[in-house]
Write a structure and sequence with these properties.
Layout: H1 16-21, H2 25-38, H3 44-61, H4 67-76, H5 78-92, H6 100-117, H7 122-147, H8 151-170, E1 175-177, H9 183-187, E2 191-192, H10 195-222, H11 230-252, E3 257-258, H12 259-277, H13 279-289, H14 291-296, H15 301-327, E4 329-331, H16 339-349, H17 363-380, H18 385-412
Antiparallel strand pairs: 1-4, 2-3
Helix pairs in contact: 3-17, 4-17, 5-12, 5-15, 5-16, 5-17, 6-7, 6-8, 6-15, 7-8, 7-15, 10-11, 12-13, 13-15, 16-17, 16-18, 17-18
Protein backbone atom coordinates (compact mmCIF):
# COMPACT_ATOMS: atom_id res chain seq x y z
CA UNK A 1 0.00 0.00 0.00
CA UNK A 2 1.16 3.54 -0.66
CA UNK A 3 1.94 5.44 2.51
CA UNK A 4 0.60 8.97 2.95
CA UNK A 5 2.80 11.37 4.87
CA UNK A 6 1.27 13.23 7.78
CA UNK A 7 1.70 16.62 6.14
CA UNK A 8 0.23 15.63 2.79
CA UNK A 9 -2.96 17.37 1.69
CA UNK A 10 -6.06 15.14 1.52
CA UNK A 11 -7.07 13.96 -1.93
CA UNK A 12 -10.45 15.48 -2.78
CA UNK A 13 -13.21 13.06 -3.67
CA UNK A 14 -14.35 13.27 -7.28
CA UNK A 15 -18.06 12.98 -7.97
CA UNK A 16 -18.56 10.38 -10.75
CA UNK A 17 -21.24 12.58 -12.33
CA UNK A 18 -18.63 15.30 -12.81
CA UNK A 19 -16.33 12.80 -14.53
CA UNK A 20 -19.16 11.74 -16.83
CA UNK A 21 -19.89 15.29 -17.90
CA UNK A 22 -16.22 15.93 -18.59
CA UNK A 23 -16.38 13.20 -21.26
CA UNK A 24 -18.61 15.34 -23.47
CA UNK A 25 -21.33 13.75 -25.63
CA UNK A 26 -20.09 10.22 -24.98
CA UNK A 27 -20.34 10.85 -21.24
CA UNK A 28 -23.92 12.04 -21.52
CA UNK A 29 -24.87 9.01 -23.59
CA UNK A 30 -23.33 6.78 -20.93
CA UNK A 31 -25.25 8.62 -18.22
CA UNK A 32 -28.49 8.37 -20.24
CA UNK A 33 -28.09 4.61 -20.70
CA UNK A 34 -27.38 4.25 -16.99
CA UNK A 35 -30.58 6.09 -16.11
CA UNK A 36 -32.61 3.93 -18.48
CA UNK A 37 -31.18 0.74 -16.96
CA UNK A 38 -31.95 2.00 -13.45
CA UNK A 39 -35.54 2.90 -14.38
CA UNK A 40 -35.10 6.68 -14.15
CA UNK A 41 -37.14 7.49 -17.25
CA UNK A 42 -38.24 11.03 -16.38
CA UNK A 43 -40.49 12.61 -19.00
CA UNK A 44 -39.18 10.50 -21.89
CA UNK A 45 -42.27 8.25 -22.19
CA UNK A 46 -44.62 11.25 -22.20
CA UNK A 47 -42.66 13.16 -24.84
CA UNK A 48 -42.37 10.10 -27.05
CA UNK A 49 -46.06 9.40 -26.53
CA UNK A 50 -47.03 12.91 -27.62
CA UNK A 51 -44.88 12.62 -30.74
CA UNK A 52 -46.48 9.29 -31.66
CA UNK A 53 -50.01 10.59 -30.96
CA UNK A 54 -49.45 13.69 -33.09
CA UNK A 55 -47.94 11.68 -35.95
CA UNK A 56 -50.70 9.05 -35.94
CA UNK A 57 -53.63 11.47 -35.85
CA UNK A 58 -52.04 13.84 -38.33
CA UNK A 59 -51.65 10.92 -40.69
CA UNK A 60 -55.24 9.79 -40.13
CA UNK A 61 -56.99 13.17 -40.24
CA UNK A 62 -54.61 15.41 -42.13
CA UNK A 63 -55.45 18.40 -39.92
CA UNK A 64 -54.69 17.36 -36.33
CA UNK A 65 -51.68 19.72 -36.26
CA UNK A 66 -53.64 22.68 -37.62
CA UNK A 67 -53.24 25.86 -35.55
CA UNK A 68 -56.93 26.01 -34.66
CA UNK A 69 -57.02 22.44 -33.37
CA UNK A 70 -53.83 22.83 -31.31
CA UNK A 71 -55.13 26.11 -29.88
CA UNK A 72 -58.36 24.42 -28.83
CA UNK A 73 -56.40 21.68 -27.08
CA UNK A 74 -54.63 24.30 -24.94
CA UNK A 75 -58.05 25.63 -23.89
CA UNK A 76 -59.44 22.20 -23.04
CA UNK A 77 -56.53 21.29 -20.73
CA UNK A 78 -56.61 24.50 -18.63
CA UNK A 79 -59.33 23.66 -16.09
CA UNK A 80 -58.54 19.95 -15.59
CA UNK A 81 -54.84 20.79 -15.74
CA UNK A 82 -55.14 23.16 -12.78
CA UNK A 83 -56.97 20.47 -10.78
CA UNK A 84 -54.24 18.02 -11.76
CA UNK A 85 -51.54 20.38 -10.43
CA UNK A 86 -53.23 20.15 -7.04
CA UNK A 87 -53.41 16.37 -7.36
CA UNK A 88 -49.62 16.30 -7.80
CA UNK A 89 -49.11 17.84 -4.36
CA UNK A 90 -51.31 15.18 -2.76
CA UNK A 91 -49.71 12.34 -4.69
CA UNK A 92 -46.28 13.47 -3.54
CA UNK A 93 -47.43 12.59 -0.01
CA UNK A 94 -48.45 9.15 -1.25
CA UNK A 95 -52.13 10.03 -0.70
CA UNK A 96 -55.19 10.70 -2.87
CA UNK A 97 -57.91 13.37 -2.89
CA UNK A 98 -61.22 12.21 -4.35
CA UNK A 99 -63.09 15.41 -3.53
CA UNK A 100 -61.46 17.84 -5.95
CA UNK A 101 -64.09 17.50 -8.68
CA UNK A 102 -66.81 18.38 -6.17
CA UNK A 103 -64.69 21.20 -4.76
CA UNK A 104 -64.25 22.61 -8.28
CA UNK A 105 -68.00 22.43 -8.90
CA UNK A 106 -68.82 24.01 -5.53
CA UNK A 107 -66.43 26.89 -6.20
CA UNK A 108 -68.02 27.52 -9.60
CA UNK A 109 -71.50 27.39 -8.04
CA UNK A 110 -70.63 29.77 -5.18
CA UNK A 111 -69.05 32.28 -7.53
CA UNK A 112 -71.94 32.13 -10.02
CA UNK A 113 -74.70 32.50 -7.41
CA UNK A 114 -72.96 35.42 -5.68
CA UNK A 115 -72.16 37.34 -8.86
CA UNK A 116 -75.24 36.58 -10.96
CA UNK A 117 -78.07 36.18 -8.47
CA UNK A 118 -76.83 38.55 -5.74
CA UNK A 119 -74.94 41.12 -7.82
CA UNK A 120 -71.63 40.69 -5.98
CA UNK A 121 -68.54 41.91 -7.83
CA UNK A 122 -67.13 38.98 -9.82
CA UNK A 123 -63.64 39.33 -8.39
CA UNK A 124 -65.04 39.29 -4.87
CA UNK A 125 -67.28 36.33 -5.69
CA UNK A 126 -64.28 34.41 -7.03
CA UNK A 127 -62.29 35.27 -3.89
CA UNK A 128 -65.10 33.97 -1.66
CA UNK A 129 -65.20 30.74 -3.69
CA UNK A 130 -61.42 30.35 -3.35
CA UNK A 131 -61.52 30.96 0.41
CA UNK A 132 -64.32 28.39 0.75
CA UNK A 133 -62.18 25.86 -1.12
CA UNK A 134 -59.18 26.57 1.12
CA UNK A 135 -61.37 26.03 4.18
CA UNK A 136 -62.55 22.71 2.71
CA UNK A 137 -58.96 21.65 2.12
CA UNK A 138 -58.01 22.60 5.68
CA UNK A 139 -60.94 20.53 6.99
CA UNK A 140 -59.84 17.49 4.98
CA UNK A 141 -56.26 17.95 6.14
CA UNK A 142 -57.33 18.27 9.78
CA UNK A 143 -59.27 14.99 9.81
CA UNK A 144 -56.43 13.26 7.98
CA UNK A 145 -53.41 14.70 9.80
CA UNK A 146 -54.80 15.30 13.29
CA UNK A 147 -57.59 12.74 13.73
CA UNK A 148 -55.94 10.01 11.69
CA UNK A 149 -58.78 9.24 9.29
CA UNK A 150 -57.36 7.83 6.02
CA UNK A 151 -57.25 10.42 3.25
CA UNK A 152 -59.20 8.12 0.95
CA UNK A 153 -62.12 8.02 3.41
CA UNK A 154 -61.99 11.73 4.26
CA UNK A 155 -61.98 12.86 0.64
CA UNK A 156 -64.57 10.26 -0.40
CA UNK A 157 -66.89 11.71 2.23
CA UNK A 158 -65.93 15.16 0.99
CA UNK A 159 -66.74 14.22 -2.58
CA UNK A 160 -70.30 13.37 -1.52
CA UNK A 161 -70.69 16.30 0.89
CA UNK A 162 -69.40 19.01 -1.43
CA UNK A 163 -71.40 17.64 -4.33
CA UNK A 164 -74.40 18.12 -2.07
CA UNK A 165 -73.19 21.63 -1.21
CA UNK A 166 -72.95 22.42 -4.91
CA UNK A 167 -76.55 21.35 -5.47
CA UNK A 168 -77.75 23.22 -2.38
CA UNK A 169 -76.01 26.44 -3.44
CA UNK A 170 -77.50 26.22 -6.93
CA UNK A 171 -80.95 25.58 -5.43
CA UNK A 172 -83.77 25.27 -7.94
CA UNK A 173 -81.67 27.01 -10.58
CA UNK A 174 -80.58 24.46 -13.13
CA UNK A 175 -78.04 26.65 -14.94
CA UNK A 176 -76.52 30.09 -14.43
CA UNK A 177 -75.02 31.54 -17.60
CA UNK A 178 -71.83 33.52 -17.21
CA UNK A 179 -72.05 37.31 -17.30
CA UNK A 180 -71.35 38.35 -20.92
CA UNK A 181 -67.76 39.65 -21.22
CA UNK A 182 -67.40 39.21 -17.46
CA UNK A 183 -64.29 38.02 -15.64
CA UNK A 184 -65.31 34.35 -15.53
CA UNK A 185 -66.58 34.38 -19.11
CA UNK A 186 -63.18 35.65 -20.29
CA UNK A 187 -61.07 33.15 -18.35
CA UNK A 188 -61.27 30.56 -21.10
CA UNK A 189 -62.28 32.80 -23.98
CA UNK A 190 -59.86 35.71 -23.93
CA UNK A 191 -56.94 35.79 -26.36
CA UNK A 192 -54.00 38.18 -26.59
CA UNK A 193 -54.32 38.68 -30.33
CA UNK A 194 -51.20 40.86 -30.67
CA UNK A 195 -48.47 38.59 -32.06
CA UNK A 196 -46.00 40.27 -29.69
CA UNK A 197 -47.77 38.67 -26.70
CA UNK A 198 -47.02 35.06 -27.65
CA UNK A 199 -43.50 35.82 -28.82
CA UNK A 200 -42.91 37.97 -25.74
CA UNK A 201 -43.98 35.15 -23.43
CA UNK A 202 -41.70 32.77 -25.31
CA UNK A 203 -38.78 35.19 -24.94
CA UNK A 204 -39.44 35.64 -21.21
CA UNK A 205 -39.61 31.88 -20.71
CA UNK A 206 -36.34 31.24 -22.55
CA UNK A 207 -34.53 34.12 -20.85
CA UNK A 208 -35.86 33.08 -17.44
CA UNK A 209 -34.67 29.52 -17.93
CA UNK A 210 -31.24 30.68 -19.11
CA UNK A 211 -30.72 33.01 -16.15
CA UNK A 212 -31.93 30.42 -13.64
CA UNK A 213 -29.73 27.70 -15.17
CA UNK A 214 -26.62 29.90 -15.20
CA UNK A 215 -27.15 31.07 -11.62
CA UNK A 216 -27.84 27.54 -10.41
CA UNK A 217 -24.78 26.21 -12.19
CA UNK A 218 -22.57 28.92 -10.69
CA UNK A 219 -23.88 28.30 -7.17
CA UNK A 220 -23.28 24.58 -7.46
CA UNK A 221 -19.83 25.11 -8.93
CA UNK A 222 -18.84 27.44 -6.10
CA UNK A 223 -20.11 24.87 -3.59
CA UNK A 224 -18.13 22.09 -5.26
CA UNK A 225 -21.26 20.23 -6.35
CA UNK A 226 -22.03 18.65 -9.75
CA UNK A 227 -23.14 21.33 -12.18
CA UNK A 228 -24.14 21.60 -15.82
CA UNK A 229 -21.42 22.98 -18.11
CA UNK A 230 -22.19 26.08 -20.12
CA UNK A 231 -22.36 24.07 -23.36
CA UNK A 232 -25.16 21.90 -21.96
CA UNK A 233 -27.07 24.94 -20.71
CA UNK A 234 -26.74 26.52 -24.16
CA UNK A 235 -28.05 23.36 -25.82
CA UNK A 236 -31.01 23.08 -23.44
CA UNK A 237 -31.81 26.77 -23.88
CA UNK A 238 -31.69 26.39 -27.66
CA UNK A 239 -34.10 23.45 -27.58
CA UNK A 240 -36.46 25.36 -25.29
CA UNK A 241 -36.31 28.37 -27.62
CA UNK A 242 -37.26 26.23 -30.62
CA UNK A 243 -40.19 24.73 -28.71
CA UNK A 244 -41.39 28.03 -27.18
CA UNK A 245 -41.17 30.15 -30.34
CA UNK A 246 -42.61 27.31 -32.42
CA UNK A 247 -45.62 27.17 -30.09
CA UNK A 248 -45.94 30.97 -30.24
CA UNK A 249 -45.91 30.86 -34.04
CA UNK A 250 -48.65 28.20 -34.12
CA UNK A 251 -50.86 30.11 -31.66
CA UNK A 252 -50.45 33.32 -33.66
CA UNK A 253 -51.71 31.51 -36.74
CA UNK A 254 -55.06 31.15 -34.97
CA UNK A 255 -56.49 33.60 -32.40
CA UNK A 256 -53.31 34.42 -30.51
CA UNK A 257 -52.13 33.58 -27.00
CA UNK A 258 -54.96 32.18 -24.80
CA UNK A 259 -55.28 33.64 -21.32
CA UNK A 260 -56.09 30.14 -20.05
CA UNK A 261 -52.70 28.87 -21.21
CA UNK A 262 -50.91 31.79 -19.56
CA UNK A 263 -52.61 31.10 -16.22
CA UNK A 264 -51.90 27.35 -16.40
CA UNK A 265 -48.23 27.91 -17.22
CA UNK A 266 -47.91 30.54 -14.48
CA UNK A 267 -49.38 28.15 -11.89
CA UNK A 268 -47.08 25.34 -13.03
CA UNK A 269 -43.98 27.55 -12.89
CA UNK A 270 -44.82 28.89 -9.42
CA UNK A 271 -45.69 25.49 -7.98
CA UNK A 272 -42.61 23.92 -9.55
CA UNK A 273 -40.46 26.61 -7.94
CA UNK A 274 -42.13 25.99 -4.58
CA UNK A 275 -41.52 22.24 -4.78
CA UNK A 276 -37.95 22.33 -6.05
CA UNK A 277 -36.49 25.56 -4.69
CA UNK A 278 -38.00 26.10 -1.24
CA UNK A 279 -37.63 24.39 2.12
CA UNK A 280 -41.40 23.85 2.17
CA UNK A 281 -41.18 21.88 -1.08
CA UNK A 282 -38.36 19.75 0.31
CA UNK A 283 -40.53 19.02 3.36
CA UNK A 284 -43.32 17.75 1.09
CA UNK A 285 -40.92 15.35 -0.63
CA UNK A 286 -39.52 14.30 2.75
CA UNK A 287 -42.96 13.50 4.16
CA UNK A 288 -43.85 11.60 0.99
CA UNK A 289 -40.59 9.68 1.17
CA UNK A 290 -41.03 8.57 4.78
CA UNK A 291 -43.17 9.96 7.59
CA UNK A 292 -41.07 8.73 10.50
CA UNK A 293 -37.84 9.96 8.93
CA UNK A 294 -39.48 13.34 8.31
CA UNK A 295 -40.58 13.56 11.95
CA UNK A 296 -37.08 12.75 13.18
CA UNK A 297 -35.74 15.49 10.91
CA UNK A 298 -37.90 17.98 12.80
CA UNK A 299 -40.60 18.45 10.17
CA UNK A 300 -44.12 19.26 11.35
CA UNK A 301 -45.79 16.48 9.39
CA UNK A 302 -49.36 17.49 10.30
CA UNK A 303 -48.81 21.07 9.17
CA UNK A 304 -47.35 19.94 5.84
CA UNK A 305 -50.24 17.55 5.23
CA UNK A 306 -52.93 20.13 6.04
CA UNK A 307 -51.28 22.75 3.83
CA UNK A 308 -51.01 20.32 0.92
CA UNK A 309 -54.74 19.56 1.04
CA UNK A 310 -55.43 23.31 1.15
CA UNK A 311 -53.26 23.87 -1.93
CA UNK A 312 -54.96 21.07 -3.85
CA UNK A 313 -58.43 22.39 -2.97
CA UNK A 314 -57.46 25.95 -3.89
CA UNK A 315 -56.16 24.89 -7.31
CA UNK A 316 -59.30 22.80 -7.81
CA UNK A 317 -61.42 25.91 -7.18
CA UNK A 318 -59.50 27.87 -9.82
CA UNK A 319 -59.85 24.93 -12.20
CA UNK A 320 -63.60 24.87 -11.56
CA UNK A 321 -63.89 28.53 -12.53
CA UNK A 322 -62.09 27.80 -15.81
CA UNK A 323 -64.37 24.85 -16.47
CA UNK A 324 -67.41 27.06 -15.92
CA UNK A 325 -65.89 29.61 -18.28
CA UNK A 326 -65.34 27.01 -20.99
CA UNK A 327 -68.88 25.64 -20.65
CA UNK A 328 -70.36 29.14 -20.61
CA UNK A 329 -72.30 28.46 -17.41
CA UNK A 330 -72.22 26.92 -13.95
CA UNK A 331 -74.62 24.13 -13.03
CA UNK A 332 -74.94 21.14 -10.74
CA UNK A 333 -72.77 19.03 -13.06
CA UNK A 334 -69.73 21.33 -13.19
CA UNK A 335 -66.69 19.40 -12.02
CA UNK A 336 -68.56 16.12 -12.28
CA UNK A 337 -68.29 13.32 -14.76
CA UNK A 338 -64.73 12.30 -15.47
CA UNK A 339 -63.08 15.60 -14.49
CA UNK A 340 -61.49 14.18 -11.34
CA UNK A 341 -60.45 10.89 -12.95
CA UNK A 342 -58.84 12.73 -15.85
CA UNK A 343 -56.98 15.02 -13.43
CA UNK A 344 -55.59 12.06 -11.49
CA UNK A 345 -54.78 10.19 -14.68
CA UNK A 346 -52.97 13.22 -16.10
CA UNK A 347 -50.70 13.52 -13.06
CA UNK A 348 -49.80 9.82 -13.18
CA UNK A 349 -49.38 9.67 -16.97
CA UNK A 350 -47.15 12.76 -16.77
CA UNK A 351 -44.77 10.98 -14.41
CA UNK A 352 -45.90 11.62 -10.82
CA UNK A 353 -45.63 8.46 -8.74
CA UNK A 354 -48.69 7.02 -7.03
CA UNK A 355 -46.42 5.83 -4.24
CA UNK A 356 -45.31 9.30 -3.12
CA UNK A 357 -42.00 11.13 -3.01
CA UNK A 358 -41.49 11.58 -6.75
CA UNK A 359 -43.05 13.93 -9.27
CA UNK A 360 -43.26 17.44 -10.67
CA UNK A 361 -46.15 19.79 -11.33
CA UNK A 362 -45.03 19.84 -14.97
CA UNK A 363 -46.39 16.29 -15.13
CA UNK A 364 -49.93 17.68 -14.83
CA UNK A 365 -50.11 19.65 -18.11
CA UNK A 366 -48.00 17.04 -19.91
CA UNK A 367 -50.32 14.22 -18.87
CA UNK A 368 -53.41 16.28 -19.61
CA UNK A 369 -51.95 17.09 -23.03
CA UNK A 370 -51.64 13.35 -23.71
CA UNK A 371 -55.23 12.66 -22.64
CA UNK A 372 -56.73 15.61 -24.52
CA UNK A 373 -54.70 14.88 -27.65
CA UNK A 374 -56.06 11.33 -27.68
CA UNK A 375 -59.63 12.55 -27.09
CA UNK A 376 -59.38 15.26 -29.76
CA UNK A 377 -57.83 12.92 -32.30
CA UNK A 378 -60.51 10.29 -31.71
CA UNK A 379 -63.21 12.96 -31.97
CA UNK A 380 -61.82 14.04 -35.32
CA UNK A 381 -62.03 10.41 -36.43
CA UNK A 382 -65.60 10.11 -35.15
CA UNK A 383 -64.74 7.39 -32.64
CA UNK A 384 -67.38 6.81 -29.96
CA UNK A 385 -66.85 8.00 -26.39
CA UNK A 386 -66.88 4.46 -25.04
CA UNK A 387 -63.81 3.64 -27.13
CA UNK A 388 -62.16 6.84 -25.91
CA UNK A 389 -62.65 5.75 -22.29
CA UNK A 390 -61.11 2.36 -23.00
CA UNK A 391 -58.06 3.86 -24.68
CA UNK A 392 -57.56 6.45 -21.92
CA UNK A 393 -57.86 3.69 -19.32
CA UNK A 394 -55.26 1.62 -21.14
CA UNK A 395 -52.87 4.58 -21.24
CA UNK A 396 -53.37 5.17 -17.51
CA UNK A 397 -52.73 1.50 -16.71
CA UNK A 398 -49.58 1.58 -18.83
CA UNK A 399 -48.36 4.66 -16.91
CA UNK A 400 -48.97 2.99 -13.52
CA UNK A 401 -47.25 -0.21 -14.65
CA UNK A 402 -44.30 1.85 -15.89
CA UNK A 403 -44.16 3.66 -12.56
CA UNK A 404 -44.21 0.38 -10.61
CA UNK A 405 -41.52 -1.21 -12.78
CA UNK A 406 -39.43 1.95 -12.57
CA UNK A 407 -39.54 2.00 -8.77
CA UNK A 408 -38.67 -1.68 -8.57
CA UNK A 409 -35.76 -1.22 -10.99
CA UNK A 410 -34.45 1.78 -9.08
CA UNK A 411 -34.57 -0.14 -5.80
CA UNK A 412 -32.70 -3.08 -7.29
CA UNK A 413 -30.06 -0.71 -8.68
CA UNK A 414 -29.67 1.08 -5.35
CA UNK A 415 -31.34 4.32 -6.47
CA UNK A 416 -34.83 3.78 -5.01
Amino acid sequence: MTEISEGAAPIPAVDPRLMVREQGLAGYLTEFRSKLRSGDLGSIPVVLGLIVIAAVFQGLTGHFLNAGNLSNITLYIAGPGLISCGIVFVLLLGEIDLSLGSVAGSAAAISAVLSIQHGVNEWLAMLVALLAALAIGALHGFFFAKIGVPAFVVTLAGMLAWNGLQGWVMGNTGTLNNIPNGVIANLDNYFFDDVAAAYGLAAVAVAGYLVAALLGSRQRREAGLPHRPTSEIALRTGLLAVLAFGAAYVLNQDRGLPLALVVLLAVVVVTDFVLRRTSYGRKIFAVGGGIEAARRAGINVARVRISVFMISAGLAAIGGLFMASQAGFADKQTGGGFALMNAIAAAVIGGTSLFGGRGKTWSAPLGMLVIQSIVTGLDLEGISQSIQFMITGAVLLAAVVLDSVSRRTQKSSGRG
